[in-house]
Amino acid sequence: MTLGAILKREDPRDAVILKKDLHDRHFSLESLPKGSVIGTGSVRRVAQLRRRFPHLVFQDVRGNIDTRLAKLDDASSPYCALILAHAGLTRINRADRVSQTLSDDSILYAVGQGAICIESRADDRDVAAVVSTLEHLDTALRCIAERAFMRGLEGGCSVPLGVWSELAVIGGSKARLLLKGNVCSVDGAKEVRGDIVGEIDLRDADKAKSVAEQMGHDLSLKLVELGAQNILKEIRA
């Protein structure tokens, strides 16, 4: 099996969904009272947000989006807010519930968040040719870099590893790819963070993907040099 195409990405950022009365009063994570309970089932989100918002309390919450929103809205709910992927809310037409969209100063998102890919048989050239026409190159390059970064650190969904990527055309067929990455300890006490910037020629998609993948790998090595492996060893232990 192979990834035949990566489709155009929805907004990959994380979003804050406040309880209605707090939303109406224009609260944010920064302004919520000390001890406010934030619901999320993501180790990555908890690790990063604990570091930046130590006055908040984070509790696990499970279920699909509608189930989680129902738990938030329940009168007896302990939660003041939830953290969810903006893309998921948009896709079920619930983006109206977003109270705050978080920037990279607050949290780096999950690898590939907001992107959908089509998987096909690697040896089926006819299907591959059809599927490849659906690929969104901007999204593919960003996700390839993000995935290479994760592989370099041997990360996964249970590791507090975040990314942030941006691709901007700088003239003609040239584009600049920015990739940020971090690794946090589960308690948020330790963080290793870095970034890398590279120039990509969009005329050759295969070569462009190779450059993006190398950038992700290089960023993982950069974070290893900064001590990321020590944090990951503690988490795995």
UniProtKB/TrEMBL annotation:
<dbReference type="Pfam" id="PF01379">
    <property type="entry name" value="Porphobil_deam"/>
</dbReference>
<dbReference type="GO" id="GO:0005737">
    <property type="term" value="C:cytoplasm"/>
</dbReference>
<feature type="domain" description="Porphobilinogen deaminase C-terminal">
    <location>
        <begin position="140"/>
        <end position="217"/>
    </location>
</feature>
<comment type="pathway">
    <text>Porphyrin-containing compound metabolism; protoporphyrin-IX biosynthesis; coproporphyrinogen-III from 5-aminolevulinate: step 2/4.</text>
</comment>
<keyword id="KW-0627">Porphyrin biosynthesis</keyword>
<dbReference type="GO" id="GO:0004418">
    <property type="term" value="F:hydroxymethylbilane synthase activity"/>
</dbReference>
<feature type="domain" description="Porphobilinogen deaminase N-terminal">
    <location>
        <begin position="2"/>
        <end position="128"/>
    </location>
</feature>
<dbReference type="InterPro" id="IPR022417">
    <property type="entry name" value="Porphobilin_deaminase_N"/>
</dbReference>
<dbReference type="InterPro" id="IPR000860">
    <property type="entry name" value="HemC"/>
</dbReference>
<dbReference type="InterPro" id="IPR022419">
    <property type="entry name" value="Porphobilin_deaminase_cofac_BS"/>
</dbReference>
<keyword id="KW-0350">Heme biosynthesis</keyword>
<keyword id="KW-0808">Transferase</keyword>
<protein>
    <recommendedName>
        <fullName>hydroxymethylbilane synthase</fullName>
        <ecNumber>2.5.1.61</ecNumber>
    </recommendedName>
</protein>
<dbReference type="Pfam" id="PF03900">
    <property type="entry name" value="Porphobil_deamC"/>
</dbReference>
<dbReference type="InterPro" id="IPR022418">
    <property type="entry name" value="Porphobilinogen_deaminase_C"/>
</dbReference>
<comment type="similarity">
    <text>Belongs to the HMBS family.</text>
</comment>
<dbReference type="InterPro" id="IPR036803">
    <property type="entry name" value="Porphobilinogen_deaminase_C_sf"/>
</dbReference>
<dbReference type="GO" id="GO:0006783">
    <property type="term" value="P:heme biosynthetic process"/>
</dbReference>
